[in-house]
Specification:
serine biosynthesis; Phosphoserine aminotransferase; alpha/beta; seven-stranded mixed sheet; globular; EC 2.6.1.52
Length: 360
């Protein structure tokens, strides 16, 4: 193949138009004769960039004015600790909904800071599926309820928002933010590492309802204190300026290509094409219930470890990169985030058909 398609779960591929613009501006940003990486993060040009980036992101996701947007460091893992440090109050405990590896990892980290009750919502049998999501009868006994709507390792996505009554709902949307429309008002906090749909690794976005700011425990480090960060434009230290700049270009690109509604339509078309092929194949199989199949991470296997390894090796040589499944699960995984064009999915299916004919 002359074109390479990167199916990595993250850092993931970025829109080609964004990379081309960054390349064009790399040595001379805004006519300053220097790179955006070399200007002061507190200077007027960069402050204007971050102001516009926040406004573009707010427009894209229809974020109400009573929510703050923070651009932080430390990835989603950093937020695993920051959230309990900022939200645990008089109730002293949090409820974590376990749907797989990352939600379980978040719960494990939170136990260092508070009491955690963990509920298994992933039903495991012949297929993986999400069970009961109505916690309205118990949720208000907790300072917050945490869940991960898309588990990248297993390819399980939760499309229904858990019912938590008036409790604070926290969502780790690292792998599906901006992939489909949501109602921000249903959440207290949404956080996401950038390296899937927002930009490069190195920056993390936190969307937080204003009434939840200012409740951090006394010993919370300032770098993780939402109130401190909000008062300092997310810049109590030097931020990852190039990553922030690239995120700003991604936001503009998404707005120019139809926003989240158009992005969701494209994502549904890509996923539908790949899942339909898997469903009609007797060689490959996907083990996620149709109602919970991820739009972002499509997992599949031949059922044979040696064949899986051969598939990954030959796919790489064919120009289809990073299809090896996570070490926790094995098999294969095609991550088809926002920037993956449908041509990439079509190329993958063509290769899958070829491999099946040669190895069935």
């Amino acid at each position: 193949m002359t074109q390479v398609f990167n199916f990595s779960a993250g850092p993931a591929m970025m829109p080609q138009a964004v990379l081309e613009q960054a390349q064009k501006e790399l040595l001379n940003w805004q006519g300053l004769g220097t790179s955006v990486m070399e200007v002061s993060h507190r200077g007027k040009p960069f402050m204007e960039l971050i102001t516009q980036a926040e406004q573009d992101f707010r427009t894209l996701y229809h974020i109400p004015n009573n929510y703050k947007i923070l651009f932080l460091q430390g990835g989603a893992r950093g937020q695993f600790a920051a959230i309990p440090m900022n939200l645990i109050g008089e109730k002293g405990k949090a409820l974590y909904l376990n749907s797989g590896h990352w939600s379980a990892t978040a719960a494990k980290e939170a136990r260092s800071f508070c009491e955690v009750d963990e509920v298994q919502i992933l039903e495991q049998g012949d297929v993986l599926k999400i069970g009961n999501l109505d916690f309205s009868d118990v949720a208000e006994n907790y300072d917050y309820v945490h869940y991960c709507p898309n588990e990248t390792i297993s390819g399980v996505e939760i499309f229904e928002v858990p019912k938590v009554g008036n409790a604070v709902l926290v969502a780790d949307m690292s792998s599906n933010i901006l992939s489909r429309e949501i109602d921000i008002n249903q959440f207290g906090i949404i956080y996401a590492g950038a390296q899937k749909n927002l930009g490069p690794a190195g920056i993390t976005i936190v969307i937080i309802r204003e009434d939840l700011i200012g409740k951090a425990r006394k010993e919370t480090p300032s770098i993780w204190n939402y109130e401190t960060q909000a008062k300092n434009d997310s810049m109590i230290n030097t931020p990852p300026t190039f990553a922030w700049y690239l995120c700003s270009l991604v936001f503009k690109h998404l707005l120019a290509t139809g926003g989240v509604p158009a992005t969701e339509t494209r994502n549904q078309a890509k996923a539908k094409l790949l899942y339909e092929y898997l469903d009609h194949s007797t060689f490959y199989r996907n083990t996620v219930a149709k109602a919970n199949r991820s739009l972002m991470n499509v997992t599949f296997t031949t059922g044979n470890d040696e064949l899986n390894a051969k598939f990954v090796a030959e796919a790489t040589a064919y120009g289809l990169q990073a299809l090896k499944g996570h070490k926790v699960l094995g098999g294969m995984r095609a991550s088809i985030y926002n920037a993956m064009p449908i041509q990439g999915v079509e190329a993958l299916i063509t290769f899958m058909q070829k491999f099946e004919c040669e190895n069935a």
